[in-house]
Specification:
By secondary structure, this protein is of the alpha/beta class. Helix content is 45%, strand content 16%. The protein has helices at 47-58, 68-94, 103-123, 140-149, 166-180, 199-213, 232-236, 241-256, 281-290, 308-324, 340-354, and strands at residues 31-41, 127-136, 152-159, 188-191, 222-228, 263-268, 295-299, 329-333.
Length: 361
């Protein structure tokens, strides 16, 4: 059992320090929290739900770093009058209508449940596992508050992004630290670093490719690894995202035992007028079709869970670009989601980051 404080004992089930006066506030049994974090999701696909979500997302300086005086009028008066309609229509196409939530929410809940089950077996229930979203609900602040109230004196914060980027990992950490600033009794805190080259992550990716390829009557001419894009100037200013994506593709190819050129690294979700990381996936797949690569597969290694960018953008816009250019067979390989090997990889990464805080039971 974890000690709640050095030199003190908590009476089981009572929540009160031994030897404390009768009017002393109750003290929760000390725990360690593991807080998983993903990008976020609108509460629904109607106009106002989409507008709230997009406003929060596109107002983040880590995502759009233009000066506020220049960006906010454009965002609030023009972009957010139109984009909630188009984005809402896209979300409606992939929405989990049975549970009335986005696929990202459904998958994140499943991941959290399986990780919690695995950690409970390893640490005899001493770990509290939950998830939050950087944008939308449940908020990072609300989940940090719940963990502190539940007695978590240590919190491991885990952004579910295999690759580091200012607009993903960094902004998630920013929000976590802002939440900690509001706590009277701050827990000790750690953040999990990117895991783009972790052997178990690469193994899970490779196994997912092999599993899909075994079902195909014709082997694809090329595997396109499509990563979320970012403005090129972020790379030039020192963001390591591009290099980490390239390494993941190389490690995946090596694990699969394929020759050079068997995997193409591309970038999707371009937004705005400036140059982003290239090649752009939507253009690259069309070029492949025109060059005679009529059968391709696409995987999205930067996403830990299927979401609007994979289920709608890759399986919609990018697929259409390939087919309109003469492509014949387009195979999308789903994200790792709550696959067993993915959960095993995430649990291993959590274990590594808990070293020194707690030992296995």
């Amino acid at each position: 059992m974890l000690d709640s404080q050095a030199g003190t004992v908590v009476k089981p089930g009572e929540g009160r320090l031994a030897h404390a006066p009768a009017d002393h506030p109750s003290v929760k049994r000390a725990k360690i929290g593991v807080l998983l974090a993903n990008l976020g999701t609108p509460d629904n696909y109607d106009y106002w739900s989409m507008r709230r979500y997009l406003s929060e997302f596109l107002s983040d300086k880590r995502v759009i770093d233009y000066p506020s005086w220049k960006w906010q009028p454009l965002l609030q008066l023009i972009i957010l009058t139109k984009r909630p309609f188009s984005s809402g229509a896209n979300y409606k196409l992939i929405w989990n209508h049975e549970l009335n939530e986005s696929p990202l929410m459904t998958i994140t809940k499943a991941q959290t449940s399986k990780i919690a089950e695995a950690l409970s077996a390893l640490y005899d229930g001493e770990i509290m596992v939950d998830f939050c979203m950087r944008y939308g609900n449940p908020s990072t602040e609300s989940k940090v508050r719940e963990m502190v109230k539940a007695g978590c004196e240590k919190i491991l914060f885990f952004p579910l992004y295999p690759h580091y980027a200012g607009a993903t990992s960094a902004t998630a950490n920013d929000q976590f630290f802002r939440a900690l600033m509001k706590e009277t009794r701050q827990p000790a805190a750690r953040t999990v670093a990117e895991y783009f080259d972790h052997p178990k992550y690469i193994e899970a990716l490779a196994t997912s490719v092999e599993a899909v390829y075994r079902t195909l009557p014709v082997k694809p001419d090329v595997l396109v690894a499509s990563y979320h894009g970012m403005p090129k100037r972020y790379l030039m200013s020192g963001d390591p995202y591009h290099c980490q994506c390239a390494k993941t593709s190389r490690l995946l190819r090596e694990r699969l035992g394929w020759d050079k050129g068997a995997i193409d690294t591309t970038f999707q979700s371009v937004f705005g007028p400036e140059e982003w990381l290239k090649p752009y996936t939507v253009e690259h797949v069309a070029e492949l079709a025109k060059k005679g690569k009529k059968n391709i597969a696409v995987i999205a290694p930067a996403f830990s869970a299927d979401c609007i960018e994979t289920l709608e953008e890759i399986n919609g816009e990018i697929r259409e670009s390939f087919e309109h250019a003469g492509g014949e067979t387009f195979t999308y390989i789903p994200c790792l989601n709550d696959d067993r090997l993915h959960i095993d990889a995430l649990v291993s990464i959590i274990e590594e980051n808990l070293l020194g805080w707690i030992a296995r039971t």
